[in-house]
């Protein structure tokens, strides 16, 4: 399964009748800057040392492993809210369980020693504070992105129109290509694993289950984009409120609900397939079932693995979006909620081999 086989349609180029130009966005790590928005601050005391860290050309796993080695703890004693890209400059919090003791002296120097002579990789400790609890996955509010684009997209005459439609109409909430691994290999592995029966020992982090669910969600969103109803709730749909975890069932879709959807106050949702009863009803539930019936092995495998059915908004609103130019470079700045992908924004503006 290659990335060509799991490429889904963008929404706004289709609506505007535009062809997408080519573009680049990761010529160097500084072209992709991510800052985690935690939404709260460490309390200043407790067993866990929280570290505000900037990394370059490192995965979060690599940084966590290095921290464990330098601090003399197990890897499971390191906490972080989310995975951050490798080919990027990222800032995020990590926690280290150090009850009754301080971090090793010269922690910055010790991390630099772990990196060795690799000039591409870098780590900077920006701040630290104590907190009573380990940093858990998914507790952050979101991420702020600064992306620098180059190539044909910079001078594309349709770019401004697509950007304005993104800002006003929202972004299709696709899972990004990194969820499926290089050339979609995680999805191929997920198919094989679910066909023989999922076992935790074969997928300890749940990465393959996630790849399968993400693929089915993207298929559902792609179908709604083709039908031109991805931004408007269907009767019987579970509708999600912007910026919160609140949701409600839209038994009917009236003008008031359509108006709330138009101003991005509420969003249609799509199912993350698994075991349990569908929360949606009527047209929305039927649409979900039709998509799942196209991938019966994946759907049945997720049910057998007893991963619980859930929902995800089909659409995102950009937080404080900005577009500017720096010579031959186009700069995009925006915030996204946790679980959202910056590549879902970029795929509405340009083509790239990894989008």
Provide a descriptive summary of the structure in words.
Among the domains are: 40-131, Pseudouridine synthase (2-Layer Sandwich); 172-316, Pseudouridine synthase (2-Layer Sandwich), CATH 3.30.2340.10. Helices cover 29% and strands 24% of the residues. The protein has ten helices and 15 strands. Residues 1-5 have low confidence and may be disordered.
CATH architecture of the domain at 172-316: 2-Layer Sandwich
CATH topology of the domain at 172-316: Pseudouridine synthase
CATH class of the domain at 172-316, please? Alpha Beta
**Count, helices:** 10
- Catalogue the unreliable spans: 1-5
CATH H level, superfamily name of the domain at 172-316: TruD, insertion domain
- What is the 3D shape? globular
Mean pLDDT: 93
- What distance lies between the first and last C-alpha atoms, to the nearest angstrom? 15 Å
| Strand percent estimate | 15-25%
Class derived from helix and strand content: alpha+beta
Q: Helicity, in percent?
A: 25-40%
Order of helices and strands: HEEHEEHEEHEHHEEHEEHHEEEEH
